[in-house]
Amino acid sequence: MAEFCTAALTFNGTGEARVEKGYPKYDKGKVMINPSRWFEDVPKATWEFHVGGYQVCEKWLKDRAAKGGKKQSDGRVLTDEDILHYRRVVVALTETRRIMAEIDKVIEAHGGWPGAFLSNDGVGEAG
Hints:
- The protein is of the alpha+beta class and 127 residues long.
- Helix content is 35%, strand content 16%.
- The protein has one domain (10-115).
- It has a four-stranded antiparallel sheet, with no helix packed on it. Strands 5-6 form a two-stranded antiparallel sheet.
- Strand 5 and strand 6 (54-55) form a beta hairpin.
């Protein structure tokens, strides 16, 4: 199985890689984790992609962000492994979106829903 290429998605800026309170924030392809560190070249549609009711790219970082209130935390400093993992998540979601669009095109080219799944006699395939 080919490994996803994470080279296009970079982690930039200077200073500590801590996910601060009020972050992450998305701005024109950048996912900011604090005012001076960010992931670059994250497609907006990937940032907004939901799985199981969650906006995955946001939630993964938000779960590591600083918190106020009764259960305060300083937020997690992302390790090199965390950064690589997040990059892989973004690439996997981007590829998932691409494959979903490809599947939709094939279904549409074969009669759409449910027509693409009917046999020549108009009866649905057993499944």
